[in-house]
Design brief:
The protein has 14 helices and 27 strands. The protein is α+β, with helices and mostly antiparallel strands. The strands form eight sheets. Strands 21-22-23-24-26-25 form a six-stranded mixed β-sheet, with helices on both faces. The longest helix has 19 residues. The relative contact order is 0.13. It comes from Kaistella chaponensis.
């Protein structure tokens, strides 16, 4: 049975004598006593700390289950209960964060009151708004600098027992399909790779390569075909193992998109375009289809094991990796792409990193002339800055905050963090300020804002004109950016 949560949302698991469908968080004694039977899987390690996709806390009379900032699905009690976290952002938390940062100089009592009100409003379902994470993924896949970082967002546990879900609850497959199609589009635009591959053919009146004696005897000698010779030889062209694998996965992706009635039909691309998500994916499919017209789709997965990737065609590595996930997801059976009830492995998507890459991608798209001076994950002394802009005259340290806080002490802590980055000697050296002791570097906190303009170009000029300085700090600014949402 499914336990449905939203990001950073808490629910109580209580003990009852009888299970009722309308109360999924009410467990009978046998289930309640098994809640600690399976340790929660670690999503990743960060500076020696284990990060979990959700937490389970035991109290005297009940358990508390708290979702983190990850979207996905995993077993709570193997074979019986699983947790599913939806990509829903809390508008009450955004509003409280905005108020806190606007009012940092007022008395702490007033700030604490904002936090208390926000805590109550954050628990209300009507304040939850669903993020269109597939739209974000599609945008990230269009830029080489962000597309190769998508793998860091996703963790899939293929060794765990599969979880039965409705197709409408499957968050993994559309994520993989969109990513694969966008990488494939990049490959086709660049041009398919040519390589040597083996061909087996029954030739007439000639010999090419080597004779396959066994096949020749079966096909020709026993059948008295004296002018035929069964040979194996090498050719140089497009119909090699990697392209055949991509074509096979492409067929699965096409079937899935064409039969989808849930994920790709819910919204338009934005105010600048009336194209729906599904129509855009079909455009990618139609763009890629001719390139694979003369390529065979017959391949065995083990044929990929000894492939050596060409650094000039680096997109092939990611495409084959994601393609393997897609085939595993559908159990190598294309008819599974239209099933309404499916199974999925436990998986998690890191939403803070997705948001971080989304803003980085907006900067790259809007500031093509400054791209070389927009540094992502600039690292120094064990610290890692989200984004550092080193363009002369526009120097700025940027910290993205998807995990918004609404307690004043925590908001101050976030501000001190980004301010500390700006005082690192290596950062000042990178910006050319090592000899300018009195020069203060601009700091910017970027956060989701549901009221920010959609389809905005985030040029450096626009950011400098529209950022808001925090009244309690010198040269510390904030900027809200819009995220694609599902209405």
């Amino acid at each position: 049975m499914k336990l449905l949560l939203s990001e950073h949302h808490t629910r109580q698991i209580t003990l009852v004598t009888e299970i009722k469908k309308e109360k999924p968080f009410a467990f009978t004694e046998d289930l309640f006593n098994n809640l600690d039977s399976k340790p929660i899987s670690v999503f990743k390690k960060d500076r020696g700390r284990d990060l979990f996709p959700f937490h389970l806390r035991k109290n005297d009379q009940y358990y508390e289950i708290l979702a983190n900032y990850y979207v996905g699905i995993d077993w709570l009690i193997p074979g019986k209960k699983f947790v599913q976290v939806e990509p829903k952002i809390n508008s009450a938390v955004i509003a409280a964060f905005t108020k806190q940062t606007d009012s940092l100089e007022v008395e702490s009592i007033a700030l604490d009151e904002i936090g208390k009100n926000a805590k109550h409003e954050a628990s209300l379902e009507e304040n939850l708004i669903e993020i269109d994470y597939l739209r974000i993924l599609l945008e990230l896949s269009t830029t080489p600098k962000t597309s190769n970082k998508i793998a860091d967002i996703l963790k899939i546990d293929w060794n765990a027992e599969q979880i039965p879900v409705e197709q409408k609850d499957d968050r993994l497959t559309p994520f993989l399909v969109v990513q694969f199609l966008q990488i494939l589009k990049t490959i086709v635009r660049k041009g398919l790779k040519k390589s040597y591959y083996k061909v087996q053919e029954n030739l007439t009146n000639k010999v090419k390569g080597k004779i396959l004696v066994g096949q020749h005897i079966k096909q020709n000698v026993f059948k008295n075909r004296l002018t035929k010779t069964y040979c194996e030889y090498q050719e140089f062209g497009f119909d090699h193992v990697e392209n055949r694998f991509l074509k096979k996965v492409f067929g699965f992706a096409v079937n899935y998109v064409q039969n989808d009635k849930v994920f790709f039909t819910h919204c338009e691309m934005g105010k600048k375009s009336k194209t729906t998500f599904k129509e855009e994916l079909l455009e990618i499919i139609n763009y890629c289809r001719p390139a694979f017209e003369h390529i065979s789709g017959n391949i065995k997965e083990q044929e990929l094991k000894n492939i050596k990737h060409n650094p000039f065609f680096k997109e092939y590595r990611n495409a084959i990796k994601i393609g393997g996930y897609i085939l595993k997801k559908f159990s190598y059976n294309i008819s599974n792409t239209v099933e309404t009830k499916i199974t999925t492995p436990p998986f998690w998507i890191d939403m803070p990193i997705l948001f971080e890459l989304y803003f980085y991608n907006q900067l790259l798209k809007s500031n093509s002339q400054y791209c070389k001076n927009i540094n992502y994950q600039f690292s120094t002394y064990g610290n890692s800055l989200d984004i550092l802009i080193s363009e002369p005259g526009f120097e700025m340290v940027i910290d993205t905050k998807y995990k918004l806080k609404y307690q004043s002490s925590e908001v101050h802590e976030d501000i001190r963090q980004v301010s500390g980055y700006a005082r690192l000697n290596r950062v000042r050296k990178e910006l050319g300020f090592e000899n300018e002791e009195h020069k203060v570097i601009d700091c910017l906190i970027v956060y989701p804002d549901l009221e920010a303009p959609q389809d905005q170009d985030y040029t450096i000029e626009y950011i400098r004109e529209n950022r808001q300085e925090l009244s309690a700090y010198h040269k510390v600014y904030k900027l809200g950016i819009a995220l694609p949402i599902i209405s």
